[in-house]
Amino acid sequence: MSAAEALKIAESKNLDLVKIAPMAKPPVCKIMDYGKFRFEKAKKEKEAKKNQKTIEIKEIRLSLNIDTHDFDTKINHARKFIAAGNKVKVSIRFRGREMAHPELGLTIMKRCAEAMADCAGIEKPAKLEGRQMLMFLAPKSSK
Question: What pLDDT score does 143 carry?
């Protein structure tokens, strides 16, 4: 059917002629109410966006000479964050002469990862960046 005929039919039905596949030979068109089509498409996108879950990154700050109870408290906070579906950024800031012993920070990070092993997995392993050591934990996928 020629484009002029299709346009005439669309106008007689008070609808729009919309090109579905303009690069095809011959181009594929559809007679529809384009305003209604755009409205329904926007409505679907809005509904899909409503069902999305945003993941936040929560931070737990540890120190190089942290005591056991303080460590356990921080781990419990991290567990709550993981249970809520958020990722956790574990950081240790090295101050002064602590920079001479990054291996001590690494042992604390490993201890933290082992304590969280049942509910979280390591997304990004511990790495020293300037005066800070960072590690990212993400919730384990329940398949």
Answer: 47
